[in-house]
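Fill-in record for Glutamine amidotransferase.
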Amino acid sequence: MRLFDPAMKKALIVRHVPREGAAGYLQPIEAAGYHIERVDVANPDFAGVDLCEPDLLIMMGGPMGVYEHDAHPWIPLQITKLAQRLERDRPTLGVCLGSQMMAAALGAPVYPGGKMEIGFAPIALNGTGAASPLRHLEDVPVLHWHSDTFDLPQGVELLASTRHYAHQAFRRGANVLALQFHAEMGEDARFEDWLTHFWTDLDMAGQCGIALRDDHDRHGPEAVAAGRAMIAEWLGNIRQD
């Protein structure tokens, strides 16, 4: 049995739905010396969780929109807590819905983008070159699965875009990284759950599940390897209090 060392750094993963976890990013997070804990927003205890406390906060994706407060009353609470964490510049990573939560917490609007972006495709890096951890993703097809977007918050640096969505990734200093795409997905069996549970998304995007599964098998390992290198580099450069 692996015992938890209280001296280890703590990483908290916030899951908005169980089928969207950290997947391929778990490896570099653990390799960087973090003890990983998880909390689901559906857990009644979530309301009492201190999001400022963990050494690293990771917020994953979900099918809900940041603006759907009536359907998901935990959203404004999470944004308020997240804003407090970002005000303190605590290390924070957001993926897809998590990136949209970060944009909202930094004061930017989040809204439907008008197009369902689904499938494996490269991102275009925005003028950061070797200075950005996203350099590991250059020319690598990664998974996209979203239709919402956000305005770029003040004081952040845009890192990547695609043809359909200009704001695919941003960072603020060394400690805050937001990724709209899913470079963590490519080797996780839960991808089959995405195809099953989000089939209406495929219809809206005009995507074939069989073709997308084939792309996942072809591009997934390279995407995950590049995603892990990106996260490992970012974790190696963050500054703790």
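KEY FINDING: The radius of gyration is 17 Å.
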